[in-house]
Automatic annotation (TrEMBL):
SUPFAM superfamilies: Glyoxalase/Bleomycin resistance protein/Dihydroxybiphenyl dioxygenase
Lineage: Bacteria, Bacillati, Actinomycetota, Actinomycetes, Micromonosporales
Protein keywords: Dioxygenase, Oxidoreductase
Any Pfam family hit: Glyoxalase
GO molecular function: dioxygenase activity
PANTHER family: GLYOXALASE/BLEOMYCIN RESISTANCE PROTEIN/DIOXYGENASE (PTHR36437), GLYOXALASE_BLEOMYCIN RESISTANCE PROTEIN_DIOXYGENASE (PTHR36437:SF2)
Signal peptide coordinates: none
UniProt domain VOC: residue ranges: 4-133
Organism: Micromonospora yangpuensis
Protein name in UniProt: Catechol 2,3-dioxygenase
Annotated TM spans: none
Length: 140
């Protein structure tokens, strides 16, 4: 039986730039930042940096993985479709803060029967939803 979601992989072109965006701009915390030696990563024939970040107090992490791994999976890569929902308590305040920090929004906050939703992209074009659920609805 599945008990939880451990990690969602996000392919990025520059891991340090992505790490700065997710920690400094979005306020995530680093959960893991290690380098796997080349002899333990034969698929790519080089050392591999593995970074995992998460919103404070949540168990699920985002793995910020170099695009060299995307090349191992045809059709997958930076800026490809993602549909990761990030839950917020106050859509208006979160939107205004991220907008001030230069985050690029594809869809400004919109109200629907489930609550509030907005869409933004990271520096590589990976898309994310901000979700503020209406009372009575479960987290998406």
């Amino acid at each position: 039986m599945i008990t939880s979601v451990g990690s969602v992989i996000i392919f990025v072109t520059d891991q340090q730039k992505a790490l700065d965006f997710y920690t400094d701009t979005l306020g995530f915390e680093v959960r893991l930042d290690v380098t796997v030696p080349a002899d333990q990563a034969p698929e790519v024939d080089s050392a591999v940096r593995w970074i995992e970040v998460a919103a404070p107090s949540t168990p699920t992490t985002l793995s910020l993985i170099s695009r060299q791994f995307a090349q191992l999976r045809p059709g997958k890569g930076c800026g490809e479709f993602t549909d990761v929902n990030l839950l917020v308590d106050d859509m208006k305040a979160t939107y205004e803060e991220l907008n001030r920090k230069g985050v690029r929004f594809r869809v400004e906050p919109q109200h629907d029967p489930f609550g509030w939703r907005a869409e933004f992209v990271d520096p590589d074009g990976n898309g994310f939803n901000l979700i503020e659920t209406a009372a009575g609805y479960r987290a998406m």
